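Lecture notes, unit on protein representations.

Consider one protein chain, 110 amino acids long.
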Amino acid sequence: MHQHHLSEQRCFNHARREAVARCPECRRYFCRECITEHDDRVVCASCLKQSFAPSAKESRRWRRLARVGQALFCFLMLWFIFFMLGRALLHLPSEFHDDILGMTQEEAEL
C-alpha cells in the first residue's frame, strides 16, 4: 500500500492549497481553513456537523419502532371494537334475532 506524505497532498475543497491535516473520520486532506479542532481532535467541518446530527441509523430505528407501535395500537383498537360489538350482540334478547329472520322460535327449531 502506497503511503502519501502530507506535504504532497492538496485540500479536498481547495485544490490549489496545500493540505495541513487529514480528517480521521472521512480520511480526506484539508487546508487550514477547512479543518477545525474539536474535543482535542482535528476534524473537517462536514464530519463535525455529522457528529452532532442524529445518525440516520438511529432515526430509522425510531421510525421503525413508531410504525410497530402504530400497528400494535391499531390491532388493539380493532380487537377492542370487535370485542365490544360481540358483547353487545350477546346481550340482545333471542326474540330480537327471531324477528329479524322472520321466524318464530318453533320454526327456527325445525
